[in-house]
C-alpha cells in the first residue's frame, strides 16, 4: 500500500491490563474510534506507545491487531527506536513480514550519533526495505537533529518520504519547503504547534491527544486545509490545555488518563512508568473535565463533514 502522507496519524497508546499483558480488545476499541473520525493512518509502537518496554513479540501482536481493524482502509506504520543498526534492520524486516505498510524511524537511541553516523544509519535501514519511511526529527527529546544538510544527503533514497517535524521550531516547515519543495512530506509532531505548522504548509500531523479526542483533531486538520482557519482556531484554543499534556515527560500517563474520560482507554502504564497521583493527577482531571464540559461538538461535526 502506497502511503499518502497527508492527514492525521495517531501515535496510538499501547493498552495493558492489570496483569501487565496487552489489552487487545481495548486497543482495538480505540483504533475503531480513530478510523471512525477519519484518520489517515495508525502509528504503532511510538514513544506514546511505550515502545521501550514493549517486546518484539508484543509489537507483532499489536501490528496484527491494527491490521485487522484497519482492514486495508488506512496504512499501519510501525516505529523503530533502537541503538543498533543491526537491530533496526532486523525490525524493518519483521515489520514487512508482519504486513505493516510503513516505518517511522528514529535516529540511534542511547548513543548520540554524529551527523555522518546518523545519515548512514538511516541509509542502511532504508536500503534494507522497500517500505515507506517517516523520519522522526526530535532533537529536544532525543538529542539528535536531522539538519537540512542531512536531509540533502538522504533525498536520493526514494522510500525516505516524510518527516515527523518535532524540532519545536515552527519555521522549520518553511525551511524544509524552501529547500526541498515537495520532496519530503512534513507532518507536525508536536500537538501544541498543530495550528501553526498546518497553517505554514505541513501536510498533516502525528498526534498524541488524538488518542482521546480523534474527532476534534481531524476537524482542526480539515478546517485548516479548507482555509477555514477561524473555525480551526476556535477548536484549537479549546484544545490547548489538553494539548499541553503532549509536551511533558509524563505524556503517556496524561494522555492515557484523558482516554479514560472519553471511554477510549485505561490509565494502566508499564513500569517504570507509574500512573499519575496526588496534585498532578487532580489538576489533570480538572483540565480534562473542564474541556469535556465545554466540548465544541457542533463545530467539530461541521469540520468532520468537510
TrEMBL record:
**Active site at which residues?**
136 (proton donor/acceptor), 164 (schiff-base intermediate with substrate)
Region forming the signal peptide = none
The answer, when asked if Lyase is one of the entry's keywords, is: yes
Quote one Gene Ontology molecular function term: 4-hydroxy-tetrahydrodipicolinate synthase activity
Write out the transmembrane intervals. none
Which of UniProt's keywords are assigned here? Lyase
Keyword set includes Cell membrane:
no
**Stored CDD domains:** DHDPS-like
- Per UniProt, pyruvate binds at 206
Q: Would you identify the family this protein belongs to, as annotated? A: Belongs to the DapA family.
Protein name listed in UniProt: 4-hydroxy-tetrahydrodipicolinate synthase
Q: Which organism is it from?
A: Arachidicoccus rhizosphaerae
Amino acid at each position: 500500500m502506497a502511503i499518502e502522507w497527508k492527514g492525521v496519524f495517531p501515535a496510538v497508546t499501547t493498552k495493558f491490563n492489570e496483569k501487565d499483558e496487552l489489552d487487545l480488545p481495548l486497543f482495538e476499541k480505540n483504533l475503531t474510534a480513530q478510523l471512525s473520525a477519519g484518520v489517515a493512518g495508525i502509528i504503532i509502537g511510538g514513544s506514546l506507545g511505550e515502545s521501550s518496554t514493549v517486546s518484539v513479540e508484543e509489537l507483532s501482536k499489536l501490528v496484527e491487531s491494527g491490521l485487522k481493524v484497519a482492514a486495508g482502509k488506512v496504512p499501519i506504520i510501525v516505529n523503530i527506536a533502537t541503538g543498533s543498526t543491526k537491530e533496526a534492520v532486523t525490525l524493518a524486516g519483521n515489520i514487512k513480514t508482519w504486513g505493516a505498510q510503513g516505518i517511522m524511524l528514529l535516529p540511534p537511541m542511547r548513543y548520540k550519533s554524529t551527523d555522518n553516523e546518523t545519515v548512514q544509519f538511516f541509509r542502511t535501514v532504508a536500503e534494507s526495505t522497500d517500505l515507506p519511511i517517516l523520519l522522526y526529527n526530535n532533537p529536544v527529546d532525543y538529542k539528535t537533529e536531522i539538519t537540512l544538510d542531512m536531509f540533502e544527503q538522504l533525498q536520493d533514497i526514494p522510500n525516505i518520504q516524510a518527516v515527523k517535524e518535532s524540532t519545536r521550531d515552527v519555521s522549520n516547515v518553511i525551511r524544509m519547503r524552501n529547500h526541498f519543495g515537495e520532496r519530503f512530506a512534513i507532518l507536525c509532531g508536536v500537538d501544541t504547534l498543530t495550528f501553526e505548522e498546518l497553517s505554514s504548509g505541513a501536510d498533516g500531523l502525528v498526534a498524541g491527544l488524538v488518542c482521546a479526542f480523534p474527532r476534534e483533531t481531524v476537524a482542526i486538520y480539515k478546517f485548516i486545509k479548507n482555509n477555514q482557519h477561524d473555525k480551526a482556531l476556535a477548536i484549537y484554543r479549546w484544545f490547548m490545555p489538553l494539548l499541553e499534556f503532549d509536551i511533558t515527560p509524563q505524556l503517556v500517563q496524561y494522555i492515557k488518563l484523558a482516554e479514560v474520560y472519553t471511554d477510549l482507554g485505561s490509565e494502566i502504564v508499564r513500569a517504570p512508568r507509574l500512573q499519575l497521583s496526588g496534585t498532578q493527577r487532580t489538576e489533570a482531571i480538572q483540565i480534562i473535565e473542564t474541556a469535556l464540559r465545554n466540548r465544541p461538538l457542533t463545530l467539530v461535526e461541521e469540520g468532520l463533514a468537510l
